[in-house]
Write the structure tokens for this entry.
Amino acid sequence: MTHILLRFVHISDTHISHDPNYVSDRGVHPTRNAEALVAQINNLPFKPDFVLHTGDVIYNPDEAAYEKARTVLGQIRYPVHYLAGNHDSSEMLQRVFLQRETVQPAYHYQFEVNGVQVVCMDSTGPATPPSGTVIDDQLAWLRSITEADDPRPLVVAVHHNTLETGVPWLDTFMRMANGDALHAALLPARHRIRGVFYGHIHQNSQTLRDGILYSSVLGSWYQIHSWPGQTETTLEPDAEPGFNIVTISTDQTHIRNHRYSV
């Protein structure tokens, strides 16, 4: 019988601004959408173990925006674990938003919930934006985890898309510059990895490679198309924001996609 180990909410790309009038060119208001997201999470008919935010907390590095984001996202009733995205400053995210006294050059960390190991990576290393990299020190740290004799199920989180998809604008413009190196670092633990969860591309997408599942999530702001052969960023008109519910059990991963209206 399947035994549930944990359930978490996967959110991403809130892009909150300090400016109450800041909207997309289609009139989508990021702060209002994020407030609606918080309400959705707080009114779920079950209690998640935690919420995972895979980056782009704010619209661009700005201390006032992080203060506003703390006001909005601080209303979530459950523990929230954050990653830095390409629109974030890893330093400001830690110092201003999370109010950490010690700031890491690259914000990566791990924690355990109900016997499941969760590893959060920082993919905002040097690259041509909006791409990024996972720096060598982080890759070495990740390999020390994946090569360890550890029986625990493993969940990995990162901001950028890692693998090629055959969609040109995702692969050449958005993708992590050293995504293949990250995938190689994960391979020693492929037997216990229950999913690699990411944001950045503002859409639900799943890729399975070498037995490792990669899963993205809708943003809470605007959404983006990724048709085969698409070469330019194309917004998905009138698309609703969303979030995912991820259930990790002893023998499987179940992901449920949710959309909501604002």
About this structure: The CA atoms of residues 112 and 118 lie 6 Å apart. The first strand starts at residue 4 and ends at 11. Helices lie at 30-42, 63-73, 90-97, 136-146, 168-174, 179-186.
